[in-house]
Amino acid sequence: MQAWQCDQPLGVEALRWSTLPTPEPGAGEVLVDIEAASLNYPDLLMIQGRYQHKPTPPFVPGAEFAGRVRAAGPGVTQLQPGQAVACLSGTGAFATQAVVPAALCVPLPPGMALTDAAAFIMTYATSYHALLDRGALRAGETVLVLGAAGGVGTAAIQIAKAAGARVIAAAGGADKCALAQRLGADAVLDYQQHTPGGSLREELKRLTEGRGPDVVYDPVGGALAEPVFRSIAWRGRYLVIGFAGGPIPSLPLNLPLLKGASIVGVFWGEFARREPQANAAMLRTLLQGYQQGLYRPVIDSVLPMTELPQALARIAARQVRGKLVLRNATA
């Protein structure tokens, strides 16, 4: 097999395209021929040594992929050779093959494109868990989605609209805002035009008729957090997804007191580990939504697996709309 190996988590320059022995699946494991793998922001953080999960080097990065089962280890009865699956393994995706626990593989419904499947689980599960489980989003409420043109942001727009919410999508630049509108956003906020230190709060007040958003979906953090939280509605819920903007913000605790608002942490990976049955039910619901046409991953582009460094550079430069997908040449 071939794989991108990270010898030390020092950045993209530490990656090398290597030939490695093809692994054999052990008890409870499957060997999967990887056809497509998607990039997520944590992949970049992991190879930089900045993610909360720090695998022991050398390791093969890449959290999420789709492909077909080549072989099943002892005790695996739920998956068969040739079956199409999507896997969220945490590492190992940027390769031609991977051995993963069978429990981490989701059988795909008929007709689901493998490029879609590779770009589906992490972003849609994160957004669904955030909005409907942690955020208790109700029909008729207003959701502000920050980072609305990214992977989790585009998923959040679709999930919030399917739940009957009004969506304000915030992104940096007219092209990103236009993408959010095509996905169904009811209003857009360009924070290149409405900056945190400028008119952002005034624009939020205008878009919500002075009330503020009921739910804020924030994968960005940084300088946006405090002015947005100051704009939240009474009994609002501020969902902390991540910090793609860089700095982890600090909020004055008098703000949630004055607004009767909640700061809600969202860690879908830990939810999946601690509550596997609830997570499995959620994934079934999401795949049903895909089959019904409610959810479709936004694929920025599909690149050869050998172009991982270039793809990571685009992630780092915030040049991606939705998800980047890498595909193996033999797929």
Account of the protein in words:
The protein is of the alpha/beta class and 331 residues long. The protein has two domains: 2-120 and 298-327, Medium-chain alcohol dehydrogenases, catalytic domain (Quinone Oxidoreductase, Chain A, domain 1, Alpha-Beta Complex); 122-269, Rossmann fold. 30% of the residues lie in helices and 24% in strands. It is built from eleven helices and 15 strands. Strands 3, 4, 5, 6, 7, 14 and 15 form a seven-stranded mixed β-sheet that branches. Helix 3 crosses helix 4, helix 3 (121-134) crosses helix 10 and helix 9 (268-274) crosses helix 10 (276-291). The longest helix is centred in the C-terminal third of the chain and has 16 residues, at 276-291. It is globular. The two termini are 14 Å apart.
